[in-house]
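During the first year of the project, the team set up a workflow for recording each protein of interest as an amino acid sequence followed immediately by a discrete structure-token representation. This format lets reviewers and collaborators read both layers of information side by side without switching files. As required by the reporting guidelines, we include two representative entries from the current panel. The first entry is reproduced here exactly as it appears in our internal archive.
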Amino acid sequence: MTNDKILVTGGGIGGLTAAIALRRKDFSVTLVEKSPEWPASGVGIIQQFNVLRAMQELDILDDYLAQSYGFDTTMGFGPRGDSLFSFKAPRLAGEHLPSNVGIQRTSLQNILAGKARELGTDIRLGTIVEKWTDTGAGVEATLSDGTSDTFHVLVGADGIFSQTRQALFPQAPQPRYTGQWVWRYNIPRPAEVTGIQLYYGRVNAGLTPLSADLMYLFMLSEEPVGFQFERDNACTMMHKRALHAAPQIQRLMDNVTENAGVVAKPLEAIFLEEAWHKGRVALLGDAVHASTPHLAQGAGMAIEDAVVLADELATGDAPDLALTRYRNRRIERCRFVNFNSLAIGDMQMGKRQDVDPAEINRQCMTLMAEPI
């Protein structure tokens, strides 16, 4: 084991999971997050079977299960609400446990932050890395709280608009808008919604249970470049888009009544095909492979990144060798999720006719069931 110090920048799902995984390997971890509060909304997120396996490995699965809704089944419906398919995901964490869970993002953030603190991570909210220099022997970093230190490795988990990526690879591709927005809202859960329900059509939508009495509704809409979300008119905007969704979704829209409860954002993506690190500085999660939500694996890929990164750094090998192996272990899975999520989105917008979402989901399940 090693006592080398690691600096993680970014306190989202990927950064916090990295802190947990690194602390499990006896690294000393400092995590900085620019927001003075944890950056998470109250709407839901799907955590699939490969994520539950990773959480079991990190010994935080019980915390997940205590604050989430477990399920195995995914169902698909056509534009008129007709049934298209139904399948069950594998139970990778054990036959006595669910395949997937739905959980509120705030609950997930609190679980991860609580465990990171419990394990001894030095967490500093409202703090950024003002300057860093890779000397070859270490990364000298100055933080906005006035402190400075030298770290074995700097991990950039600072999201799709990563400042770490920009400094590390200034010529790298920039995030691009895909043409779609996602709209999310938490509503009461009817008894019949016991797993993911996906609704296809002009406006694609879905339902995911979060608890015994709560679920979240999401919709995907095609919007022009420059589209402006109006916070004071959020419900009306979401209702307007639901007019083109399946009838099951339209019937639920009476529950969408509070503008503040609508979470809407443009779908943007980025993928770095080449190096994911330079020297002693590495990228993780959305900073290197941000995906759209069509395969519900964006957070899962960041969580798996964290586990693999900690594994490789714990070998004690030189950082360049360890970080190269980290990227090589992750590249195939992350590329599949990124490229195929975009393909499904393009199909939904009529840009491609050669895409079979059911087959992509089948391939994704097979790949995600493989060891990381």
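The second entry, processed by the same pipeline in the following quarter, appears below.
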Amino acid sequence: MTVDQTRQGNSTTSVLGRRLGAELFKLRTAAGFTQPQAATALSASTAKVAKLEGGWVPVRDPDIRALCELYGIRDPGRIGSLLELAKVDRERRKAKGWWQEFSFPGVMQEYIALENAATTIRAWQPAFIPGLLQTPEYARGLRENPAAQVTKGPEPDEEFVAARIARRRRLTEKPALSLRAVIYEAALRNFPGGAPTARAQIEELVNLADLPSVGLRIYPFSAGTHAALNGSFNIMSFAEPGAMDVVYVEGPLAERWVEGGDSAAAYDELFERIAELALDEQGSVSFLHDLRKEL
């Protein structure tokens, strides 16, 4: 779903609300019930069920339990995943965090809020160092190089850099965000700011790879081509990875959320194939050390 589709009049959906709503819709249709029947089980209106399935309103735990009872869902794990996603969505809707102090453009405002709520992120990046791993010099170089970005956001340059660095707190705070990142070799050979920026960034990647919360792999040129070389994506998990994932896909001219179960699962599989072809974590650090010596 694109950013333009998240508003309806004065109402706003949320990524997690749409993800949860899509799951509730799938469960209802699979069980053969209509929206009016679901509304009866909730002692609510059909309009409320439509809003729940569209992600327009937060979902209460009693409503999830009542709908699961109606749809014949007995698996505690599946019910728990729905409850956890609903909880995170409710908290995110009312959360006031550091990111609200910055002028993030468009979809990034919601992305950062979700990044702050996620438990795990799996990131594939063919062109740039992932935002969570960037040094201030690298981020500043991107900002100052007009060829590195299609459009420039409204925030001042130093605010842009400060926001990138603020995001790094998630990797060390408790509970820490678990980040698994795979970076294409091309991103390590095309640095904004030249050799000084490259050396500092590579050293920082080596240091970050030592964090318990970070799993870093390099996808070398020698591993060949694959289907994701034309764009980056981040898979965000809020419970167990794979249970209720949403995917942020970024291209040169557009960003979009992938919220459907089957579509998100396809990205899960794609990421695991990429990671399997990449160097392992120890080999990736050795690669970075060798690359550092070339600069």
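For the second entry, the following points were noted during internal review. The domain at 3-94 is CATH 1.10.260.40 (434 Repressor (Amino-terminal Domain)). The longest helix spans residues 76-94. Both points are flagged for discussion at the upcoming steering committee meeting.
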